[in-house]
Amino acid sequence: MEVDTANALRKPVILLMLEKVNTDKMTPNMQKVFNRYTRATLVHDQDGGQPHPPWPVLVSSVI
Fold first, then answer.
1. Residue 53's pLDDT is what?
2. Which of 39, 43, 44, 47 is deepest in the core (most CB within 10 A)?
């Protein structure tokens, strides 16, 4: 899984969730990433969707 590889290489991860997630069904490593790092949800709108928090906030999390 890509998340496991990124975690093993100590790469930053930002998860973008397209729908509500049941964390009980996540692997332990995915739960760790989900709880520890930045995550965003996609809020659907007439333009297709926008992330929440907005892009500037997500970008500042990476920088």
1. 87
2. 39
Q: Which domain holds residue 19?
A: 2-62
Average pLDDT over residues 46-51: 87
Full-prediction pTM beyond 0.90? no
Cα torsion 22, 7, 49, 57 to 10°: value is: 110
Q: What is the DSSP string of 14-52?
A: -EEESS---GGGS-HHHHHHHHHS-EEEEE--TTS-EEE
52: nearest Cα among 44, 60, 43, 63? 43
